[in-house]
Amino acid sequence: MIEIKEYLAQLYDRLGTKVSEENQIQIVTLIIDIKRENPEISNSKNSLYLDVKKFISLYLRNKRLQDYGYEEYNYLLIRDYIMGSGFNSKQKLKLLVYTRYLLLSLSYEYGWVEPLIKKASLELSFRERNLSFILQISSWNSFTLLLSILFIYILECILLLPAPISCMSVCTLIPVHYSDCSISNHMLNVLSLHFSCISNSAKIEFNSLGIVFFALWNMLYAIVCVNFLFKNLFSKFEVDDKC
Question: Under DSSP, is residue 179 helix (H, G, I), strand (E, B) or coil?
């Protein structure tokens, strides 16, 4: 192990000398491979995280400066160095966002990195028990958005059931007959509350607390939908994630 550390020190010393970018890439690649094979020395001299970050920068910028200006790069190599080096969720996310920044600045295609950023961000929120995890799940795709709206709607149906004790009631649903089945009739009444343009839609009466509750509940629908639009449509305008 001492010999490996000494060899790494020599490699780092070589990086400090005037060597070409291609040689720097080869040296950093060798350093990363040694550290990946020997995790116990992954923080020797520099952290593996900084080594990988340096490699990504050197590698992509060097490719961009090749004779034709747009030399193909091996995205699988970059992905493997980020996702397969034992980094925690936060480090993965930072490296992925940094990679996307470089790809954008160098006019490279970056579609492959977007799903990885979403996955790493979701994993980080889950591990940190962050409430944004719920919003990220709901905005993952159109299917999860529909599931989220359906879940909120079912909750609303339950909350608008008649209160077992009158003092617990914050609102009173004035139903309209849509169906002979009491369950489906209740669900249709709740649904009609969101479509005031329907002439025979159900009505609801609130006390002061009920008005606040209803406003917050409608905001929940709006937050879920706006979050989906932001993540899946506005992101096309290259709004960078902060991390």
Answer: coil
> How far is CA 140 from its chain centroid?
8
Residue type, 198: I
Rounded Cα–Cα distance for residues 243 and 88 (Å)? 14
Q: How would DSSP label each residue in 79-94? A: HHHHHSS---HHHHHH
C-alpha–C-alpha distance, residues 190 and 2, integer Å: 71
For 174, phi then psi, to 5°, come to: -100, 100
The H or E element spanning position 173 is: strand 171-174
| Contact (CB, 8 A) for 63 and 103 | no
The per-residue pLDDT for range 41-98, each reduced to its tens digit, is 988 888 999 999 999 999 999 888 775 655 688 999 999 999 999 999 999 999 999 9
Round to whole Å and give the CA distance between 170 and 208.
8
Burial of 110 (0-12, 13-18, 19+ CB in 10 A): middle
pTM attached to this predicted model:
0.66
- Find where tokens 């159900």 sit: 202
DSSP summary character for residue 240: P
